[in-house]
Amino acid sequence: MAHAYLFAGPRGTGKTSTARILAKAINCTSPKDGEPCNKCTNCKAIQMGKFLDLIEIDAASNRGIEEIRDLKEKIGFLPVQGKYKVYIIDEVHMLTGEAFNALLKTLEEPPQNVIIILATTEAHKLPATILSRVQRFDFRLASEADLIKKLTQILKEEGFDSDDGALYLIAQGGMGSFRDSETLLDKVISGLQKGAKLLKDQVETTLGYTNSKTVSAFIDAMAENQPQIALDLFNKIFEGGTNLVQFVKQVLEIARERVVKAVEKGNTQEIREYMQIIKEFNQISLDIKFALLPRVLVEMAVLNLSTDGPVSLIERKHKLKEALDKNEVKTHQEEIASVNIDEIKSKWLSVINESRQNNHHLVAVLTVATLDKSDSGALIINVPFAFHKNRLSDSETKKILQKIFLKVYGHEIPYQCRVDRDLAEKAKEVKGKGNEKLVEDILK
Question: What domains are there in the chain, each with its CATH number?
Answer without folding.
Answer: 4-138 (3.40.50.300), 144-206 (1.10.8.60), 212-318 (1.20.272.10), 335-427 (3.30.300.180)
